[in-house]
Amino acid sequence: RRTADNGGIERAREVLADVFGYRDFRSHQADIIATVIAGDDALALMPTGGGKSLCYQIPSLVRPGLGVVVSPLIALMQDQVEALTQAGVKAAFLNSTLDYREMVALEARIGQGDLDILYVSPERLLQDRTLALLARIDLALFAIDEAHCVSQWGHDFRPEYRQLKVLAERFPSVPRIALTATADERTREEIVAELRLGEARRFIASFDRPNIRYTISDAGSMGARERLWRFIETEHAEDAGIVYCLSRKSVEETAAWLSDKGRTALAYHAGLETRVRSKVLDRFRQESGVIVVATIAFGMGIDKPDVRFVAHLNLPKSIEAYYQETGRAGRDGLAANAWLAYGLQDLIQLRQWIAQSEGSEAYKQVQRQKLAALIGLCELPSCRRQSLLAYFGERRAEPCGNCDNCLNPPQTTDGTVLAQKALSAVYRTGQRFGATYLIDVLLGRANERVARSGHDKLPVFGIGKDTDEATWKGVFRQLTAAGQLTGDDDGYGMLLLTDAARPILRGEEKFLVRIAPKETKTKAKRASK
Ligand code: ADP
Ligand code: ZN
Q: Which atom of ligand 1 is nearest to the CA of 181?
């Protein structure tokens, strides 16, 4: 491997100032950049807005040769190339939007070495024609952006990403850097394995967004929309924000409803013409106090720093999605709100979507687990931030003081004994079963499966008889949300103990169970007629 001289990081600082106009590197940027400049592989986990782009842009400029950036998002590629070109960097993108003539011209430029940074879609990169072209020229690095797309467990699986392992085989001397904003432990391991990054140095920035206040509530009898209005009226009377809805129809209705209340509220979804959508984007950026009501199609690549709130009128699909979407609030570091209200109907809807989706059974199982983890977070009686960060593999010792549960602790009951029973059932049955089975064991149901495994002979068999099934479900969800239990890697729905389970089993730590408010249940029945 080509190693840069010690001046590498000095050069990087000059480029930071001269090309990008910034004085200092942020948290891990300098180390990541130094690693790649030195010719080593890197895995960078940084939250959205953390400054991942510079981690490959600067080494591309400092190292000799072309920096190749794999990105799954065409719109993002175009934005980045535009910004780089304005900064005087020779950048271009290669994807399906180019016509044949443009492509040939670009290839000629690449062949002549007249380019610093090339953004390319994975499909295009993997074509023989492209790989052969790259084999003929000097390469500074490969950057694999949105690396979680390689993971089936990740929320954005792209099969082409799995083939990127050929880069390690065909270009062994070119350093590779994989970047992502969403990677829990298992996604991280999948990235490393699938992309052959076993030797890569890992950089993990904190995912904490301390200025974002998390609030999650049941839509309850008031309904999510009415609750939303109360929230906006009292806390964000003049602020810009984003409201996420599940369907286009509810986007349209909610935008109209907020407009009636006197706010500038614009609908945004994939069904609108491109022209209309870019108009919405422009107004959101330029005018103050605009609320965009959107499906999740809105957000990728949005870089408006002063979004003061992100509200969800429905459950997002997963904790990753929730984190990603709420992460668009408060990028300027000032106080911002992440607000979510959900109803039982959302749950039913999301479960139906999973059941009816095209994916394999294993895929569906993963989606179900993710949804369960999200519900766990919603039902959690303790600090939301601790649980959110635990999901991303980050331990935080103290409650945050800046989430709804920290500020207004919900009604809870000491569930330590329940938790111990549940965790023991997981342990005694060999960490090979899902919640449904474990609940059968706890309730002492000697059905065929239980009997076949001989689990009706275990000391835990029937120890949970005095508690109802719904409570047990809640206990398992909450233990999963709090990180004492985790799903298995293969998506079979098995629950496994984590290190965090030990203090509870030993009685060194208490476990609080949230008492669900009664009101929601009656309302949900009426709503789902
Ligand atoms: P990510 O890709 O991690 O979401 P970006 O690379 O888009 O984040 O960076 C987010 C914002 O932070 C951009 O506006 C970028 O210009 C800015 N930024 C990145 N690094 C620095 C830095 N060292 N100093 C100041 N601003 C930075
Ligand atoms: Zn908290």
A: 3
Ligand 1 pocket: which of 33, 53, 204, 300 to mutate (most atoms within 8 A of CB): 53
Q: What is the distance in A from the centroid of ligand 2 to the CA of 403?
A: 4
Please name every residue paired with 241 in a beta bridge, in sequence order, or none if there are none. 291, 309
Q: Distance between CA 109 and CA 87 in Å, rounded?
A: 19
Please report, for residues 19, 188, 446, 448, the alpha-carbon distance to residue 489 in angstroms, rounded to integers and kept in the order given: 43, 12, 28, 26
Tokens 């030797």 belong to: 199
Phi, psi of 16 (to 5 degrees): -55, -45
Which residue's CA is the nearest one to ligand 1's atom 27?
51
At residue 527, the pLDDT reads 35
pLDDT for res 345 = 72
- What is the spatial distance between Cα 167 and Cα 68, in angstroms, rounded to a whole number? 11
- Cα separations in angstroms, 394 against 338, 387, 454: 20, 9, 38
Q: Could you give the CA distance from residue 206 to residue 305 in angstroms, rounded to a whole number?
A: 19
Residues of the chain with pLDDT under 50: 1-4, 517-529
- What residues contact residue 335 under an 8 Å CB cut-off, 6+ apart? 211, 213, 308
Cα 139 to averaged position of ligand 1 atoms, centre (Å): 24
Say if CB 156 and CB 136 are below 8 A apart.
Answer: no
Provide residues with CB under 6 Å of ligand 1. Answer: 22, 24-26, 29, 46, 48-54, 303
The sign of the torsion formed by the CA atoms of 58, 286, 93, 51 equals: positive
Q: Calculate the alpha carbon distances from 277 to 135, 257, 280, 301 in Å.
A: 40, 19, 5, 14
- Helices first, then strands: H and E counts in the chain: 24, 17
By alpha-carbon position, which residue is closest to atom 12 of ligand 1?
51
Q: What is the ipTM of this complex?
A: 0.97
Torsion from C-alpha of 464, 470, 474, 480, nearest 10 degrees: 70
Q: Distance between CA atoms of 337 and 311, rounded to whole angstroms?
A: 8
